[in-house]
Each structure stands twice: as C-alpha cells, then as structure tokens.
Amino acid sequence: MRMKRRVLQLVSGVLVVLMVLALAGALALYAMGLRVSGLSWQQGLLVSQWRWQPQDCVQWQGENLRLDGLWPLRVRLSTLQGRACPDEQASDATTVQGFPDGLPWTPPFDVTVHQLDLPVVSEWPLPTLALSVRQRHQQWQLGVCSLQSCVQASYGQQDGLWRASGDGQLGEWLAQVRGRWQWQGSGTWQGTPRGQLSVMLSDVGRVEGEASANVSLDGDFVGEGWRLRAALSEPLPLMPGWWLEGGHPSVLQGEGATLTAMDADLRMTTPHGEARLQARSDARQAATGQGALTLSGPALDGRLAFVWQDRMLTLPPTTLTLPDGILVTLPSALSIPMALNGEAVLPLQVGYQGLQLQTKASQLRWQGADWLWAGALALQGRWNGYQVTGQWEGEATPRWLAGKPLRLTIAQGEDQLNVSLPVEGMPLVPEQGTATAKGQWHGYPVQAALQFARGETGWQGSLSGQSRVVALDHGGKLEARVPWRWQGSVLHVQPGAQLRIDQGLVGQTLLRPVTVSTRQGLVLDEQGMRGALQVQADGLAAARWQLPRVKGEATLKGNQGQAHFTIDDWKTALSVDGTLEGGGARGSLQLNGALVPAMGQGLGMTPTAGQFQGDGRWQWQQGVSVEGELALADGEVAWGSVEGRGLDGLLAVGYEDGAPWLASRGPVTVQTLDVGTPIINLTFALEGNLSRWHFRDVRADVLGGSLVAPALDWPSDQVQPVVISQIDLQQVAALQASPAVSLAGRIGGYVPLQLGEDFLVVEQGRLANEGPLMLRVPPSQSVQAMAQSNQAVQLALDSISHLQIPDFQARMTMDREGWLDAQMTLKGVNPERKNLPVVFNYTHRENLLALLRSLRIGEEITQQLRTEKQ
Length: 870
Known about the structure:
Layout: H1 2-32, E1 34-41, E2 45-52, E3 60-70, E4 73-82, H2 86-90, E5 109-117, E6 129-136, E7 139-145, E8 149-156, E9 161-169, E10 177-188, E11 194-206, E12 213-222, E13 225-232, E14 236-239, E15 242-246, E16 250-255, E17 258-270, E18 273-281, E19 288-296, E20 302-309, E21 312-315, E22 318-322, E23 326-330, E24 334-337, E25 341-345, E26 349-352, E27 355-367, E28 370-383, E29 386-396, E30 401-403, E31 406-412, E32 415-421, E33 432-441, E34 444-454, E35 459-468, E36 474-475, E37 477-487, E38 490-493, E39 498-501, E40 504-506, E41 509-511, E42 514-517, E43 522-525, E44 528-537, E45 540-541, E46 546-547, E47 550-558, E48 560-567, E49 572-581, E50 584-594, E51 606-620, E52 624-639, E53 642-656, E54 659-664, E55 668-674, E56 678-688, E57 693-702, E58 705-714, E59 720-728, H3 729-733, E60 742-744, E61 746-755, E62 760-769, E63 773-776, H4 781-789, H5 791-800, E64 802-814, E65 819-830, E66 836-847, H6 848-869
Parallel strand pairs: 4-5
Antiparallel strand pairs: 1-2, 2-3, 3-4, 5-6, 6-7, 7-8, 8-9, 9-10, 10-11, 11-12, 12-13, 13-16, 14-15, 15-17, 16-17, 17-18, 18-19, 19-20, 20-21, 21-24, 22-23, 23-26, 25-27, 26-27, 27-28, 28-29, 29-30, 29-31, 31-32, 32-33, 33-34, 34-35, 35-37, 36-40, 37-38, 37-39, 38-43, 39-42, 40-41, 41-45, ...
Helix pairs in contact: 4-5
C-alpha cells in the first residue's frame, strides 16, 4: 500500500510539473507573439486559426493546423501565409554570417501545407504552392509544387550529400513569358560546401511572339570560390523590339563578392540603338581585367570603360546619351570596392531638355544586401520656357527616405510656383504623401495641396486649392476640391469634384457666385477630357441691367464641348458649343425665349410680350467676349407710362470686357408707340450699351402727319432737332374729350428736344401752317356763358367764330416737369363778318405730360368698357 501511495504521489507530481511547464510554455509563446483561436480535439489537436505576430506585426498565419501524431511528429495545415514586417525588413542581416554546417538534429516529423503563400519572398505574384517536408533518421526530403511546376530536394546528415531537381513552365512565374525550365544540382553540405548546378531554359520567348531561344547556365562552387558559364542558342526576345545575344558563352569566376575572372561579350538591341558589354580578364595577373559598355544608335551614344584590380572596380569620367535626350555624366573617376561591405563617393549628373540634376556630397555605403545613400540633389535649368530650380538633402535606403522636404521652384516672368514635398519616413517608392504649392501661375495667385496614395489599381488622392480670378477688380475668390484617381495613363476626376468662384466686381458690374461640379466624374487621357459638368451661375448685376441665375450641364469630349443652359426667370434657353485652342477656348451659341418683365429689371424699360432668338460666337482668352445676332418679333415694351407694341428687328449684340453692347441690323420697327397720342409705323436704327442709346433715321406717323429725326441720343445733355410735318389739326382737336373748337388744315415745324434720363425738354420749338387753316368756335353752352359774362369777350368770340387762316405761327417751350408754354399768332379773315380781318394772339400753359397721361388712361378705360360690352 505504501508503495502504491508513493507511485501515485510521484505520478501526480510529474503531471503537476508537466502542467506547470505546459502553462509556462504557453505563456512564453503568447508573450513572444503566438495567437490561436478555435482549439478543439478531432482525432487529434485542431487549431482553426493561428498567427505569429511579434511586436504586433503578423509574420506568419495559418488555418486548420492539425496535429496527427507526436512520434514521428505529424502536422498538416490547410493554409500558411508569410508576410514582411517593417521590423523584420529593418533587421535583415547587414553582415555576412558563416554558412551553417548542415542541418541541425531534429526528431522525425512530417509537415504538409496544402496552400502556401509567400509574398515575403518576392514582389512578383507567385502561384499557389503546396509544401511537404519529411525527415526520418536525419534524412531530409523536401517537395514544393504548383499546378505546372515542381521542385524536389534531399539531404543526408550522415554523409552531407544533397541533391535537387525541378522543372516547370516559365509562364506560371513570369507573366507574358513562355517556355520551360529545368534545373538540377548535387554536392556536399559538411565541412567545406561544394556542388554543381545546371539550369536549362528551353524555347524562351514572349507569349505574343514567335521567336524563342534556349538559355543554359552551368556553375560550380567550393567554399567561397565559384564559377558560372552562361550561353544563348539564339538572340533572346525580352520585349517588343528588345533582343539579347551573346557573341560566345560568358564565363564568370570569383571569390565571394570579388570577381577574379570574366570573359563576356553581350549585345542588347533596342528600338533606340545598341548596347554592347565586353569584358575580359588579364590572363597574366589574377583578379585583374577590363571592359567597356558601348552605346550606339539613333538615341544612344557613349562609352563607359571599367577596370577591376585588387578588389577595386574603377570607372573613368564619361558621358552617356540615353533615349529622350537624357545625358548621364560621371564628372570624375569612381572607385567601387568589390566587397560585400564598403562605401564609395558617387558623383553623378543627369541632363534632360535644358534641366541639370547633380549630386552633392554624395556617398553610397553598403553591407551585404543593405545599402544607404547620403547626400544632396540640386536641379536647375529651363524647361518649356520655364526656369526650374530644386533641391533635396537627406538619406535613402531600400526601404525609406529621410531628410529635408523636397523643394521645387518653377518661374516664368512674374509667375513663380514653389512646390514642397515632405519625405521624412517616406518609402523609397512613395506610397502616400502631400505636396503643397504656393505662388503665382499665369497671373493667378495659387495656394494648393495635392494628397496622393497608392491604391490597388493605381494612384489616388485629392487636389484642393485657392486662387482669385484676376480679371475681376474686387472679389472673385476661387476654391477647388478635386478628388482624383490615376490608373495607367488615365486620370479620373471622381464624383463630387467642385470649383466655386465667389462674387466679384468688374468695373460697375457684379458677377455673382459660379459653381462647377461633377456628379459622375470626368476622364482625362491623351484624347482630352470626357464627361459631364453641372454649372450654376447666380448671374450678373450692373447699374442699369441684370442677368438672373443660369444653370445647366456641359458635356466634354476631348478638346470639344457642348452645354445647355436655362434662365428660368427669363424663360430662356441657351445652347453653347466650343473648342479649346491656344490656351483659351472659342465656340458658338444659340438662344431663344420670350420677352418677360424680369428682363427689364434695372433698365428703366419693361418687356411685356414677344419672342426672340439668336446665335453668335464666343471666345475666352484672359476674359470672355461674345458677339452675335438677336431677332425680335411681336415685342411689347413699356417705358413708364409709354408703351410700344409690334416691336420687330434684327440686332447685333455683344459682350466684352464686362460691358454689353448692341446695334441694329437694318431698321427696327414699332407698330404703335403710345405716349397718350399714338405714334404709329415708327422705324429707326439704334446703337447702345444698355446705359446710353443712339437712335438714327427716326421716322414715324403721328396725328395724320410725320415725325423725322436724323439722330437722337438718350440720355443726352444736348438739344437735338426733330422735324414734324403735315400734322392734322382736326386730329389735334380730337385729343380733347369735348372739343371747344373745330380745326382743319395741317401744320409743321421744328422742335428741338433734350432727352434726359427721366425727363423731356423742348427749347424754342416753332410751328407754322402748311397750307390754309380753318377755325370754328361752335356756340356751345360754355362759349355762350363766356360771351354773356363780358362784352369784350363776346366781341372777340364773334371775331374768331369762323376764321380762314392763311398765316399761323407758334413758339413753345417745355421744362423738365412737363409744363408747356406756348405763344400763338393767327392771321385770317372771318367770312361770316364780311371777311373781317382778324389778328389773334394767344398764350397757353399746361402740363403736357399730365395731359398725355390722362388721355392714355381715358383711352384704356374706354377700350376696357367697349371690350366688356362686347
């Protein structure tokens, strides 16, 4: 019993210790970064998901890890994925470690991964892989396969022998390449490693081409010493127009990173010319040789010689010409240590179309595969007429940039734009950033920021900026917000982009805000811009006229566009098309609509009816100008109490430098101009700018006669002549509702007018008879009452009761308030008084404007009563 009790105590203690160790191990693994989820037991331990994330970066993760046995250890995984972490990349070995002497001892195991994903190995997309590793009695076997390729390897720890082989399709690993690959190798991995490798690439070519070649690579190594032989059977097509060929098999031999022997003659043929690399070792002296890279052809030129000796590669000063006129210059000799660790001064100059980029205090240091460049870059020169300068100082590694912001200045005349891009911590190939610009461009003040980031399909970001429309005297702040995406060679302006111009003044004209936006986005490529823009302009306001809100949509296609706008307050439609050219734009326009009262706001006249249509041309070049024709039909217009009907005409109209203008093409006709006394058949020519008007060849019929004026300006501070003739006195007498006299005959004369902005002045007008006149004073009650009141009045009324008048003279003036002062002289005979000769002088004062207004109102009331009676 005591023995059993002791055994049980011992077993219990061991179990407790194992549990404690297991718990401690689990805690240690958790602290190191192991995370698991979905633990279960299904004929063995099953972990649904796990990941290894030291320092919060997932380096490895997998799914459905199953433990099928402990001896030998059997592990199966559905998926295994490896990722690169910044810390992992930063800690890449920068010094060469001693090569391990074989593989370590391990217990027997089988590991199977059904789907292996290793983006950490290469930036090229790799096919889906399956992995199997097996070890029995320290005999290792490895297999890695994809759908079209497979690699096998074996290693024995006892004798150190290794063997490897594989084959597959090149297209599975390199897009746009066809052919097959095979490789095999063998050697020992104990003590001093040694081995032989052989790689054969068969029928290598591009997918879309027919040409192909065979490539063979054979090599061997012993310790750090190595030798490689490469040969091409035919010129190898690399890309359209690019071919690689070798004059004879190339042989390279070295010790570690030191080249001890070389014999090569390679020629690269390109659409730009030919590049030939020749190198040969000195047979009389080890680790010594020389060679040259020679460029020749339409766009290539230059020769770069090089010499290697005593583990040092030396390049003399030279200049190479590359495509697009790029010049690469090495201003002084360059010596580069042929070692895994080293440093070198790297002077370099690059020229392109008048621009010169050069390095300053440039030094390159490297340790193994890691390198660091430190120095400064300076850019200066002229490009497309602009003076360009730039500078940057900092460091660059394979992973990141560090240093001062990159600065660029672009100037031309008074224009200068300063661009800045912070690069601290930015990857060597930038993934995201923000560039800012400030200055003046084409006369416009500019302050902008460009945000960019690399997406799955290309670059994307947003452009925001502020400026001011310099063509305006005041105001005109311009704000832009443009989200964008760059895919391939196409720029996409994303929906929601907006450009807004705040209100501003040009002279005395107020331009209200303008907004341009896009709901569905725009596309900008080599053919130009394509898409639709929504436009809303809140209108213009001048001292005497206004343009209400305009809204519509513009459709762009390359350098051409069409737009359709509506002016709702004016019941007007406007269509515009145009073409970009010469830094501006030009095109045509058409409009049509109805004359409505809103058009007369601020003009002193009110359109009330009619139709109009027009077409014209427009141009934008540092400002907007418009010129065209406008046809009016059946128009009706009111100037205060004056009304015009039946307005027809063809007008030339325009807008330039913030000012509108118009001029008639042929006569403008008005059927009726009602000023209290109807003026009919009015014709004239006109010119004006909506604030001043000039009328020419004015003709009209009035009171049975005619009115003629060679020229009239409105408003004007000058007296302008108007000639009237053949005025029918019978119609003049009929102007009164109850005529006190009866008149017959015709008169004419000369009436000097001053047309003020809101008044009419007559200065020293003269009228006379044009033929015999007749005057009768009928014996009405009012006349009889006047005669009975005074004997002198009765005598005068008897004298003029019936007059035949061969001579009539009248003078008249009228002030701004409309008061008419007239003096008239009548000379005639009374046939009812035995041809009694009579000379009658008469003065009269009356407010003519009030009289005409009352006559017009009386006529309107009479017309309305007649209409209602009918």
